[in-house]
From TrEMBL:
GO BP terms: methylation
The protein's name: Methyltransferase domain-containing protein
Molecular function GO terms recorded: methyltransferase activity
CDD domains (UniProt xref): AdoMet_MTases
Span of domain Methyltransferase: 48-144
Organism: Nonomuraea corallina
Keywords annotated in UniProt: Methyltransferase, Transferase
Annotated Pfam families: Methyltransf_25
Length: 286
């Protein structure tokens, strides 16, 4: 698949789900975004670029930290996501935040115009993320920082989902996915630089960064029920699987997921899963 087709697929997925993205009663992206901003630690008055801002899970915490004298620019390839972020910016009457439609892989922005570049579960989706990292370095001022999050990729674990999901998704269902979205293809792509911290650090250093820190930390995901989680999964990256499944196979997977996840609930309480997340921070080496 060529790069432009891939980016259009990603944009279409998130455009379709923008109205309900992270709004289905499942807590995950919002606490993960807050934690990312804590680690990025933008100071009052600083300028922040948020790559793949979505509806603003990390954009709004960053705007709060930099204050009225600071500035946060959120960019996303999906116009509907940007529209949702803009509506929230307007609803909050924020004068220090802006959202724009822009290719996160090649942001058309002035050199040395930001103190912090951050990306929550977004930079890893870029067709050539290591090359994009070098471009981000040019956007940062001397001593500027980068911070991004990703899943913790491990061989044998279904990509992008907590380990609890791997036995719940029959391998034969995955045959309906296009070749580039097959788990083996995703593992090859991401594990090439993301699975081992030493490879990740080396990639950032080649891109012009230093003081690389890799922190694997769980983020608690909560849902009122397994059914609620499955409904929510249609609004995020797993939509790529759902939209390629024929109706009978989609119904089968839905029942398997609901049954398996309900077994994880305790005493009728909410579904709670601690999701392994990798947080990466570094400083530009100049």
């Amino acid at each position: 698949m060529d790069t432009s087709t891939y980016k259009k697929q990603v944009a279409d997925v998130f455009d379709t789900s923008a109205a309900t993205y992270d709004r289905m009663g499942v807590e995950f992206f919002t606490p993960m975004g807050r934690r990312l901003v804590e680690l990025a630690a933008p100071a009052r008055g600083e300028r922040v670029l948020d790559i793949g801002c979505g509806r603003g899970a990390s954009l709004f915490p960053a705007a709060e930290r930099v204050g009225p004298s600071g500035y946060v620019l959120g960019i996303d390839v999906a116009p509907a996501m940007v529209a949702e972020a803009r509506a929230e910016i307007e609803a909050r009457a924020l004068g220090n935040a802006v959202a724009r439609v822009m290719d996160g892989e090649r942001p058309e922005l002035p050199d040395r115009s930001f103190d912090v570049v951050q990306g929550g579960y977004s930079i890893i989706f870029l067709p050539d993320a290591p090359a994009a990292l070098a471009r981000y370095g040019k956007l940062l001022v001397k001593g500027g920082r980068i911070a991004f999050s990703s899943p913790v990729f491990k061989t044998g674990i279904f990509p992008f989902l907590p380990p609890e999901f791997t036995p719940l998704i029959p391998r034969e269902l995955l045959g309906h996915l296009p070749p580039e979205w097959q788990p083996e293809a995703l593992v090859r792509r991401f594990n090439s630089w993301l699975e081992r911290p030493e490879d990740l650090a080396a990639t950032l250093e080649r891109a012009g960064f230093c003081d690389v820190a890799v922190l694997d930390e769980p983020v608690r995901m909560t849902a009122a029920s397994a059914e609620q989680w499955v409904d929510w999964s249609h609004t995020q990256g797993m939509r790529l699987l759902w939209q390629h499944l024929p109706a009978p196979q989609a119904a089968e997977l839905r029942e398997r997921l609901i049954g398996g996840l309900e077994a994880l609930r305790r005493d009728g309480g909410p579904l709670v899963i601690d999701v392994p997340v990798r947080f990466v921070t570094a400083r530009v080496a100049r």
